[in-house]
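Suppose you are handed a protein chain with no further information: no name, no annotation, nothing but its sequence. What can you learn? This example shows the usual starting point.
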Amino acid sequence: MIACFFGSKFVNLELSKSDLFVTMTMQLKVPSIACEGCAEIITEAIESLDAAAQVKVNLEAKIVTIDSKSSLESIKEAITEAGHTVE
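A reasonable first move is to predict its three-dimensional structure. Written in structure tokens, the prediction is:
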């Protein structure tokens, strides 16, 4: 609970733990991406960490763009555990 003044009124705000995390946009080079199947595996691995994550995979550039509340390290670990390399 956070207490604050709003105008001239004292207000208590209820926040859950998930409200305290900010969505970050990250770009990762994943040189092992070879096909749409690889992109799906990587997307599923990231979404297993954060179901609300937005994942875009550029197959040609081998770049994964992620909007997520998960940490960079946890996303890298998920991609690696899915069998891909991250630079």
